[in-house]
Design brief:
By secondary structure, the chain is an alpha+beta fold. It contains 3 helices and 11 strands. β6 and β7 form a beta hairpin. The protein is globular and about 40 Å long.
Amino acid sequence: MTKINTIFSIITVLLTMVMMTSCDKIDNKAIPRFTVRIDLGGYALWNTYGVHGMGEYRIFNRDKGIPANFPYNVNTYTGYGGVLLMMGLEAPMAYDLACPVESSQDVVLSIDPDNFEAVCSKCGSRYNPLTGAGGPVRGVAINSKLGMRIYRVTPNNGGYFISN
C-alpha cells in the first residue's frame, strides 16, 4: 500500500468515527478553564515552533519549559494541562492536553503516532484531535461523552495566535 493510500485510509476511518459520534452532544469543557495565550505570530516563530504537515504536532507547557528555548514571557499562558497544537486536514488546531476524564493537570494526553489519536495512559481513553474536534473515540470518555477542550487558532502576521 502506498503512503498516499495509507493516509487516505486513515482519513476515511477518522471521518467515519467523527460521523458516528457527531449525533451525540460532546462536553469539551470538562476540565477547568485556564487562560491560553501563545503568540506564534510572524514567519520566524511559526517556522520554528509551528506545525506544517497533517498530523504534525507540538506541545506547549510554560511551567515545564516545553518546547525548550521557546520565548515564553509574562503574557504567555498554556492552559490547564498544556496545549496541543496539531495540523489538521486544512488548518492548525489547538486543545488542552489534560485528559477530560481525569480532569487533572498531572494526567496529560500523549499522541499515538500510528493514528494521531490523543491517548490517556491512566484511563485509556482516546480522542481524535486531527479531524474529530477532540471528540472521544474509545474508552471511558465515549460513555461519559467527554472531549478535549478546544482553543482558538487565529492567523497572525504569517503565523498564528492561540487563545481561549
